[in-house]
Structures are given as C-alpha cells and as structure tokens.
C-alpha cells in the first residue's frame, strides 16, 4: 500500500467505498468547518476514538451522541500518530442508517482493511489524533483535470485498478496531483483514467 499523500483505494466496482492510505492530513487552512457546534464536534471526535478503543480492547460499543443517531451522512474517519496515519476508511455515500453507525462502521473497516492498523492497541487509540472528513455530495466528472482548483476542491482519479483521491488542500497543483495519481495507479496512459472533482469539510483534533 502506498504511504504518501491522501490515497483512496477503490474496491473494484464499488465507487462508493474508499480506503484511504494517507501520510499527511489536510492543511488547517484548507479544512472547511461542518455545521456542528464546538460541543458536537468534540462529541463526534470522542465517539470515533471510543469506537476505536472498544474494538481494539473488546469492550462494549460506546454510546453514540444522540444527535448523531438522528442524521445520515457519509464520512471518512482517519486516525494518526503525529502526522502519520495508521488507520482510515470511508466513502462518498452512506452505508448505514445514521452518522453514528457510519462512524463505527468506518472504524471497523479501517481496522479490517488498512494494513497499517495491525499494530494498533488501546494505548495507540488513546494517544491518537483523529479527523472526520465529510464529502459534500458525489464526485463530479470533469473533462480536464486542470479545471480543478486543488486548494478548494478534491480530485479523484479512477482507473481500471482502483482510484486515488486528494482531498481539498492536499495538492499544491492539479498537474502534480494528476501525475501522482497516474503513478500510484500504475497507469501510463492518461486517457485510460476518469477524473472527478469533489468538495469536503472536516473536523479534527488538531
């Protein structure tokens, strides 16, 4: 698995579900703030951490914030030590009925599918930083990757073997992001891939 940038590995034929392999998180200046109060943000981040701790220790599932049981929303959940990610999973489309269930499911799938999470322990979870990223709708197909402004928009490049995505603010230029995506996909023909733009917002312990 590649370890630099924001990398979303698309399961074949399953565009909605992405596994993120990330080394660095979104720069602070690039993160838009979702419409949650400070208390709600802290509750969501604390709940995600508790989900991770519970799954690593075998403890009962934590109680979800009540407001998160009354809404459905897609998200990506990312855990990191310093600036290095050790577990992440998410998608553009909700797979569960509530945001609380979506967060817990992403934690479960991160531990199952992200190879970097194999060494995670309850102590790791207690010290981890974390981020919850909320896609704003589905990716939109574009004809020219140069039409994407990476400071404000994310880029998803999809090929036959999967997909690579850069969240808003991660790439300095669209040209660099596109070349890097081709490299990670092992694709030499730029015409063989589809390019999408997407918007996202995030909350983080940073």
Can you walk through the features of this model?
With 206 residues, the chain is α+β, with helices and mostly antiparallel strands. Helix content is 26%, strand content 29%. The chain has four helices and ten strands. It has helices spanning 38-57, 99-113, 122-127, 174-185, and strands at residues 6-11, 14-22, 76-81, 84-91, 129-135, 140-142, 154-159, 162-166, 194-198, 200-204. Helix 1 (38-57) packs across helix 2. It starts with 5 loop residues before the first strand and ends with a strand.
Instruction: Characterize the main sheet.
Output: 6 strands, antiparallel
State the CATH architecture of the domain at 30-136: 2-Layer Sandwich
What is the radius of gyration? Answer: 16 Å
Helix content: 25-40%
Structural class: alpha+beta
Element pattern in H and E? EEHEEHHEEEEHEE
Give the termini separation: 25 Å
| Number of helices, where a helix is a run of at least 4 consecutive DSSP H or I residues | 4
The strand line-up of the biggest sheet is: 1-2-4-3-5-10
CATH topology of the domain at 30-136: Glycoprotein, Type 4 Pilin
Beta content: 25-35%
**Residue-averaged pLDDT, rounded?**
83
Quick one: CATH superfamily of the domain at 30-136?
Answer: Hypothetical protein ph0010, domain 1
- Oligomer, anyone? single chain
Tertiary shape = globular
């Amino acid at each position: 698995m590649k370890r630099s940038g924001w990398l979303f590995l698309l399961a074949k034929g399953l565009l909605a579900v992405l596994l993120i392999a990330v080394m660095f998180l979104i720069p602070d200046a690039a993160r838009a703030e979702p419409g949650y109060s400070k208390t709600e943000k802290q509750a969501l981040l604390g709940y995600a951490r508790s989900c991770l701790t519970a799954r690593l220790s075998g403890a009962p599932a934590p109680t979800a914030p009540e407001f998160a049981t009354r809404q459905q929303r897609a998200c990506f959940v990312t855990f990191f030590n310093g600036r290095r990610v050790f577990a992440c999973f998410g998608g553009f489309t909700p797979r569960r009925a509530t945001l609380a269930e979506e967060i817990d499911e992403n934690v479960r799938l991160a531990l199952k599918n992200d190879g970097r999470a194999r060494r995670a322990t309850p102590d790791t979870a207690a010290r981890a930083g974390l981020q919850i990223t909320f896609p704003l709708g589905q990716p939109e197909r574009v004809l020219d990757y140069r039409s994407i402004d990476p400071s404000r928009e994310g880029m998803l490049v999809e090929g036959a073997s999967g997909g690579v995505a850069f969240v808003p603010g991660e790439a300095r230029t669209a040209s660099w992001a596109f070349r890097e995506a081709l490299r990670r996909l092992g694709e030499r023909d730029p015409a063989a891939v589809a390019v999408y733009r997407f918007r996202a917002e995030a909350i983080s312990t940073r």
